[in-house]
Design a protein that fits this description.
This protein is α/β, with parallel strands linked by helices and about 450 residues long. It has 19 helices and 14 strands. It has a 5-stranded parallel β-sheet, sandwiched between helices. InterPro entries: AAA+_ATPase, AAA_lid_NorR, CheY-like_superfamily, Homeodomain-like_sf, HTH_Fis, P-loop_NTPase, Sig_transdc_resp-reg_receiver, Sigma_54_int.
Length: about 450
């Protein structure tokens, strides 16, 4: 009989998880905080751990790091009601088996328990948590991207990020750099499509003084500027074929030759990105097949914003935060209906424009009137939300609205209930069901 340890300060949630696990044949141990959980691990043989992220005393990431440092650590899945890009990436980088958002469905729990007991990973001793660029949003698609980043950040594997223009491919590259072991070294970004072909070699590989007309001084080039760190080659699908051959050689030989100079050894991690279909360009002869496979070691695809509409309002409020303004409901509805052909970049520009020109403290639909003509062709509801049951879609929207009301009210549940138009006790019931920290002290009540 496998043994499961649940570490969570919410007794009700622990009991609910324990009941489901026991039904699946698990022996269950419980601890209400991190230190108690670590003591149990020292005394008992445990096959899997469910670990809360936010607890009194040691936080979940610190407990996770200590568990993973054990000689034979059990698999750990981190649970949180407040998932973010940072804690998702860090949990996966520290060696978590998975990172789940509360409330946890029975099927998800059964799946993750089966996976954890089938896999007990090796110990790890990763560096401390860092803060960095953030991939805002909580859609299933984005969380999968965050988890993938967490798993690969400390490797040396080349990464190819794909997605439409404006989806945030450079943010993925920066997250890989800033959460990995190279974060203290340079991050250098080059847009290959923005540099004329006759200048691209010098921009990437550098040159020595006098190598050509106008070369009045030595130039390092992007590869050597990123030495020890990460080089991000954006829009690599637009790179001319002759330059592709030189990039391939640089990756194979781990060295570059400045124009007019001698070869120089490299210690650089490469992350490339493109909005092109590289496989199709290989088939048409516009992209080298050998370079494609050299880049396509770990692929990460960023879906278009219209395919992850659960991220629209969190992104909009993130972009709006510096102005101190808030979104009115009619404005939020308009943002959800818009097709966003320009993806996150278009959303950011739209919010900045509205915040600049709006006269009140609230951004209303009229402040976004410039989107109305395009919204008439917006995607229909069946394409604007992940495929799920009506109950799942309703729960997703309810959770989003409650989290937004709590954030705007500074955690004051009475004020949040007023904003939502429901009684405070009903809000307490919903908070308990959603696992949103009902046991915490409520400021202002």
């Amino acid at each position: 009989m496998p043994t499961l340890l649940i570490i969570d300060d919410d007794a009700g949630l622990r009991d609910a998880l324990a009941e489901t696990a026991a039904d699946q044949g698990y022996r269950v141990l419980q601890a209400e905080e991190g230190e108690a959980g670590l003591r149990l691990l020292a005394q008992e043989t445990v096959d899997a751990v469910l670990l809360d992220l936010r607890m009194p005393g040691l936080d979940g990431l610190e407990v996770l790091a200590r568990i993973r440092a054990l000689p034979e650590p059990p698999a750990v899945t981190v649970l949180t009601a407040f998932a973010s890009a940072g804690n998702t990436i860090e949990a996966m980088r520290l060696g978590a088996f998975d990172h789940l958002t509360k409330p946890i469905g029975r099927d998800d729990l059964i799946r993750v328990l089966a996976g954890m007991t089938a896999q007990r990973g090796p110990a790890a001793a990763p560096p401390a948590t860092v803060e960095g660029h953030t991939l805002v949003g909580g859609s299933d698609a984005l969380r999968q991207v965050q988890k993938t980043i967490g798993r690969l950040v400390d490797s040396e594997a080349t990464v190819l990020v794909t997605g439409e223009t404006g989806t945030g491919k450079e943010l993925v590259a920066r997250a890989i750099h800033e959460h990995g072991k190279r974060r203290g070294a340079p991050f250098v970004a080059v847009n290959c499509a923005a540099i004329p072909p006759d200048l691209l070699e010098s921009e990437l590989f550098g040159h020595v003084r006098g190598a050509f007309s106008g070369a009045t001084a030595n130039r390092l080039g992007a590869f050597r500027e990123a030495q020890g760190g990460t080089l991000f080659l954006d829009e690599i699908g637009d790179m001319p074929l002759p330059m592709q051959a030189k990039i391939l050689r640089a990756l194979q030989e781990r060295e570059v030759t400045p124009v007019g100079g001698a070869p120089v050894r490299l210690d650089v991690r490469l992350v490339a990105a493109t909005h092109r279909d590289l496989a199709q360009r290989v088939a048409s002869g516009d992209f080298r097949e050998d370079l494609f496979y050299r880049l396509h070691v770990v692929p990460i695809h960023l879906p278009a914003l219209r395919e992850r509409r659960a991220d629209i309002l969190p992104l909009a409020e993130h972009f709006l935060a510096p102005s101190g303004r808030v979104l009115a409901d009619d404005a939020a509805a308009l943002l959800l209906r818009h097709p966003w052909p320009g993806n996150v970049r278009e959303l950011r520009n739209a919010i900045q424009r509205a915040a600049t020109l709006a006269q009140g403290e609230r951004i209303v639909a009229a402040d976004l009137a410039f989107l109305q003509s395009e919204t008439s062709d917006a995607v229909t509801i069946d394409a604007s939300w992940p495929e799920e049951t009506l109950a799942e879609a309703t729960a997703r929207l309810e959770r989003l609205l409650i989290e937004r009301a709590l954030q705007r009210s500074g955690g004051n549940r009475a004020e949040a209930a007023r904003r939502l138009g429901i009684h405070r006790q009903l809000l307490y019931t919903k908070l308990s069901r959603l696992g949103l920290g009902v046991g915490e002290e409520d400021s202002g009540i």
